[in-house]
Amino acid sequence: MNDILRTIHERRSTRAFENKPVPYDVTETLLQAALRAPTAGNMMLYTILKIDDPEMKEKLAVSCDNQPFIAKAPLLLVFLADYQRWYDFFLRSGAAELCQARGIELRKPGVGDLMLAVNDTLIAAQTTVIAAEALGLGSCYVGDIMEKYEYHRDLFHLPKYVLPITMLCLGYPREEAAERTPSRRFDQKFIVQHNRYYHLEGLELDMMFKDSRRPKLTEGAANFGQDFYLRKFASEFSVEMTRSVQAMLDSWNA
Question: Which H, E and C letters describe 137-157, residue by residue?
Fold first, then answer.
């Protein structure tokens, strides 16, 4: 197995970091790698916010589902889907006047454009993760940045066509974090399909989840499925994320 594949296979989330900053040159190397991520039409439909201000990190630790480790991470990178730059460039290039001269309506970014920007954003984020591992850094994705849209919009001064998609906590892993075993993944036969989608049912689902268990289930849950439903899917943070993302879509389409 070569070094790149080994990095991918051995990667695990890091939430415990050494109390030392990520040097400037390492951060720059990381960001330059991120900017080489594949992108639709070479448009780079994302913005990366580099967060190292302690007060800002404390605020994000609270707003992202009260997770103290966020504030302790030496470096946070917030990945934003960004169509604002291109739309502003279109307007500056005279697109509105061109449309008026042609008697057609000026097109604004729609949900398809948003999905393309989200693709770009997540590809850049994952490229950053692999680069971070290669540089000896640990990382942890925080999807909770999609919660509390209105708060994060104001905190980051986001315009209409810029939305928070994911956040990475980065730093040098503490010894116990570096020695953690990577999480188990579902068997490939349940995830990779051939030519058409196959809907798993009944015993196939039982087989897929047979090794999924927790030492202690959520109160009232009789099995892992009920536990995960209560603890994750129907939790307050999941409900808030759905509300918040809907608010993003409403704002984008307004």
Answer: CEEEEEHHHHCCHHHHHHHHC
CATH number, residue 67: 3.40.109.10
- Domain count of the chain? 1
Residue 104 has pLDDT above 90, yes or no: yes
- Residue 127's domain comprises 3-198
Per-chain mean pLDDT for the chain: 96
Q: What is the radius of gyration, based on Cα positions, of the chain? A: 21
Question: How confident is the model over 57-73, as a mean pLDDT?
Answer: 97
Nearest to 232 by CA among 151, 143, 150, 170: 143
Say how far apart CA 146 and CA 243 lie, in whole Å.
10
Q: How far apart are CA 114 and CA 162, in angstroms?
A: 9
Give SS3 for 175.
helix
What type of residue is 83? Y
Give the model's confidence band at 221: pLDDT under 50 very low, under 70 low, under 90 confident, else very high.
very high
Predicted local distance difference test score (pLDDT) of residue 177:
72
